């Protein structure tokens, strides 16, 4: 759990982060969204004390983050940044081993952990471990960057625009990977992004920042349905709202009784994808099946359109 | 098949043709300070050797001129360099009248130009072969051993430069030690001071411009002027600081030479350290901090290894520069090979000048090759840096 209490950061007369309080529940992802200069990165960097706050406290699992020397604190927190920041003179395996090495793990345990992480990120340890970062594709570099951040099994992972430098296709894949990894390890993640779509997709909760202030901190559905200010509304994008709302739900939750002709849609697909499929094929309804291929019923345009309407 | 010319080969062939047929191969002088008379290859060498050498040069010119396989060019350049080295020694024995100890025979422009032409050919071949650093070091070692063996065999003993050496054998090695101590010692001092200074300049931006400008200004002071400027302060130190004169600090001599070389060395070391550190990818630095490296761990584990090849390039510049500059130290009694150069100039004895100049050039050349190899080895060990 991360408790941010009345945190403020001032540079000379300029207030970059202004009295922000928020709590991130354990094992959840919080996405901090805002335009550039909104103070979102500064807020993130105060958690691992790359930036020291002017006032306020931050507690990690109930412990003030100033109770340790800054470098020891940072070793216990995962940190992944845009452009991955891999060390060009070290191999992939050495890069991932950075924090375990700083913590003084023994060789065997480090090797084991590196192999485990590489496999988890679908990189063959024998092939990729000895490579240098410049021998990897952008998507692979990014995966190694996240693997490195997770190497010492941190409870908390901070990510600063981790997918910012990736092209859209690799980006989607990287987001899916992150969700799977988060489920696997139960890591608490705070992710900074300027992309509302990414925030809605990844965040259990979304924190919207503007001019150093926390404007709204709520579940994605609430941010979409009840934006706290016109700024949030703009950020959400009024023309995108219904579709973003649909993207939060799974087809399984929109199944109706009955049957339909055509290619079945899997129950774990997003409702947005289902609507897109329906509109594209020109059919009023399509069958739904679960992961085992068992028919569950059907999903209809009418049903989905109702779900896309602003919640009461 | 059309005949195709090698571009560099045309230049080499022109130089070699002029040097072999028109320029004097050796100079003969009745004693060490009178002006000499040049001798062409055919006149400078005994009966069979002269035409044989000329024939070799002609073959080499043809091989250099045309587009020929690298192996041919390699063989030809090595054969010619060895032949020239032997021939000049032979010329010394041939031209010196028996029993005459005053006459001097020295290599003339033709010899030097031929050496230059075929060294150029060899260097071109070695570059095109893209030899690994280890092989280059081995080639350097073989060349050094070959020269050493020629010297030891006495094949060159009749040449003037070795006659000058024979007269000064004891001081030669003493001055050689001084020369190397001056060049390496000032480099070491510059690294010890320059590295931390460079790191400081990198970390503290306010310092950077000031420090680099001061070092730049020092670099522009002519060396003789700098020696002169140091006489005053060092003389004062010798007089007023207890123990200073006991460790050899004086207004003239080794101390000011050492200080001057040290000052000249600082700029390349500091500037390359700053440039090297500035070239470290920002994201890598940020990640290092974010993952909990202390300042020292970040410097030693990330910044320094990434900046190292650039810093080493600075050290290479300094070493080669210092080996050359150390010659001037002799002017203020600092010793080194410069002693022979200035004595030779004073006596208009060019052979003595060469006794100081040739080892200096050879030393600088060898140092350059060794450090280039080291730079390449460190760079390949760390692989190419990621394209940022």
UniProtKB/TrEMBL annotation, chain A:
Single GO term (MF): ATP binding
Pfam families per the UniProt record, alphabetical: ABC_tran (PF00005)
Origin superkingdom: Bacteria
Keyword Transport attributed: yes
Keyword ATP-binding attached: yes
Domain ABC transporter: 2-236
Keywords associated with the record: ATP-binding, Nucleotide-binding, Transport
Protein family according to the UniProt entry: Belongs to the ABC transporter superfamily.
PANTHER family with a match to the protein in the record: OSMOPROTECTANT IMPORT ATP-BINDING PROTEIN OSMV (PTHR43117)
Name by which UniProt lists this protein: ABC transporter ATP-binding protein
Annotated organism of origin: Mesorhizobium retamae
Automatic annotation (TrEMBL), chain B:
UniProt topology in membrane: Multi-pass membrane protein
ABC transmembrane type-1 domain location: 176-371
Alphabetical keyword list: Membrane, Transmembrane, Transmembrane helix, Transport
CDD domains registered for this protein in UniProt: TM_PBP2
Transmembrane portions of the chain: 7-28, 48-67, 74-96, 108-127, 134-156, 180-202, 214-237, 257-280, 301-319, 325-345, 352-375
Family annotation (PROSITE patterns): ABC_TM1
Gene3D superfamilies found in the cross-reference section: MetI-like
Domain of life: Bacteria
Location of the protein in the cell: Cell membrane
Chief location: membrane
Assigned protein family: Belongs to the binding-protein-dependent transport system permease family.
Alphabetical list of PANTHER family matching this protein: GLYCINE BETAINE UPTAKE SYSTEM PERMEASE PROTEIN YEHY (PTHR30177:SF30), GLYCINE BETAINE/L-PROLINE TRANSPORT SYSTEM PERMEASE PROTEIN PROW (PTHR30177)
Designated name of the protein: ABC transporter permease
């Amino acid at each position: 759990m991360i408790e941010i209490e009345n945190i403020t950061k001032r540079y000379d007369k300029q207030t970059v982060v202004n009295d922000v309080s928020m709590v991130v529940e354990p094992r959840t992802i919080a996405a901090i969204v805002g335009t550039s200069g909104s103070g979102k990165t500064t807020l993130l960097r105060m958690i691992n004390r790359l930036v020291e706050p002017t006032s306020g406290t931050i507690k990690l699992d109930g412990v003030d983050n100033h109770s340790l020397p800054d470098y020891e604190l940072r070793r216990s927190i995962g940190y992944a940044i845009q452009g991955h920041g891999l060390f060009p003179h070290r191999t992939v395996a050495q890069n991932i081993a950075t924090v375990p090495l700083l913590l003084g793990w023994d060789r065997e345990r480090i090797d084991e952990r590196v192999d485990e992480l590489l496999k988890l990120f679908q990189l063959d340890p024998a092939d990729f471990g000895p490579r240098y970062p410049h021998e990897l594709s952008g998507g692979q570099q990014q995966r190694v960057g996240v693997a490195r951040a997770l190497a010492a099994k941190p409870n908390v992972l901070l990510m600063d625009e981790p997918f910012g430098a990736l092209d859209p296709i690799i980006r989607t894949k990287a987001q899916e990977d992150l969700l799977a990894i988060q489920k696997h390890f139960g890591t608490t993640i705070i992710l900074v992004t300027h992309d509302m779509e990414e925030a809605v997709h990844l965040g259990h909760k979304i924190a919207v920042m503007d001019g150093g202030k926390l404007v709204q901190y709520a579940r994605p559905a609430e941010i979409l349905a009840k934006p706290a200010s016109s700024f949030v509304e703009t950020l959400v994008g009024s023309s995108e709202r219904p579709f973003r709302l649909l993207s939060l739900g799974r087809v399984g939750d929109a199944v109706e009784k009955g049957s339909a002709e055509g290619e079945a849609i899997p129950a774990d697909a997003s409702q947005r994808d289902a609507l897109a499929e329906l509109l594209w094929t020109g059919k009023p309804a399509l069958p739904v099946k679960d992961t085992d291929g068992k028919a569950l019923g059907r999903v209809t345009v009418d049903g989905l359109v109702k779900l896309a309407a602003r919640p009461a | 098949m059309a005949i195709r010319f090698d571009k560099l080969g045309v230049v080499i062939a022109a130089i070699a043709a002029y040097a072999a047929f028109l320029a004097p191969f050796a100079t003969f002088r009745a004693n060490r300070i009178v002006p000499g008379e040049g001798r062409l290859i055919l006149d400078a060498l005994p009966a069979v050797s002269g035409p044989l050498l000329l024939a070799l040069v002609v073959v080499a010119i043809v091989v250099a001129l045309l587009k020929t396989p690298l192996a041919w060019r390699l063989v030809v350049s090595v054969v010619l360099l060895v032949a020239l080295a032997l021939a000049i020694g032979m010329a010394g024995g041939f031209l010196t009248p028996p029993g005459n100890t005053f006459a001097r025979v020295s290599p003339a422009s033709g010899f030097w130009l031929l050496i230059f032409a075929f060294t150029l050919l060899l260097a071109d071949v070695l570059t095109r072969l893209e030899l690994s650093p280890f092989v280059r070091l081995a080639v350097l070692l073989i060349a050094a051993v070959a020269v050493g063996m020629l010297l030891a065999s006495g094949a060159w003993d009749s040449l003037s430069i070795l006659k000058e050496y024979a007269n000064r054998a004891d001081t030669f090695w003493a001055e050689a030690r001084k020369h190397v101590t001056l060049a390496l010692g000032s480099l070491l001092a510059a690294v010890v001071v320059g590295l931390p200074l460079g790191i400081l300049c990198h970390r503290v931006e306010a310092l950077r411009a000031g420090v680099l400008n001061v070092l730049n200004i020092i670099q522009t002071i002519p060396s003789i002027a700098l020696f002169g400027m140091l006489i005053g302060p060092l003389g004062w130190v010798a007089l007023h600081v207890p123990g200073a004169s006991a460790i050899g600090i004086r207004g003239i001599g080794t101390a000011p030479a050492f200080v001057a070389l040290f000052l000249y060395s600082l700029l390349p070391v500091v500037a390359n350290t700053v440039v090297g550190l500035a070239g470290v990818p920002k994201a890598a630095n940020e990640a290092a901090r974010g993952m909990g490296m202390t300042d020292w761990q970040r410097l030693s584990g990330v910044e320094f290894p990434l900046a190292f090849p650039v810093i080493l390039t600075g050290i290479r510049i300094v070493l080669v520069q210092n080996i050359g500059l150390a010659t001037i130290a002799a002017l203020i009694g600092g010793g080194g090979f410069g002693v022979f150069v200035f004595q030779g100039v004073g006596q208009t004895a060019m052979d003595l000048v060469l006794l100081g100049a040739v080892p200096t050039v050879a030393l600088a050349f060898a140092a350059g090759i060794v450090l280039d190899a080291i730079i390449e080895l460190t760079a390949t060990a760390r692989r190419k840096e990621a394209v940022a």
